[in-house]
Amino acid sequence: MKWTIDRIAFFTLVLFLSSDSSLMRAGGASALSAESPPIIDLHFHAIPDWDLQALVKVMDDGGVVMAGNGGRSDSVALSFAEKFPGRFIPFVGQRPIHDLIQKEGEQVWKLESKAVLEYLDQLEAGVRAGQFKGIGELFVNNIRSRPSWFPGALYPADSPLMQRLWAMSATYGVPLSVHMEATEESVAQMERLLVSNRQGTWIWAHAGHFGEPPLLRRLFQGHPNLYCELSGREGLRLEKFRRSIAEPIDYHGKLRKEWKELLEEFPERFVIGTDVDGHDPRTYAEMIQFWRKILPQLSPQTAAKIAHQNAERLLKLLPTK
Ligand SMILES: [Zn+2]
Question: What is d(CA 302, CA 35) in angstroms, rounded to the nearest whole number?
Answer without folding.
Answer: 11
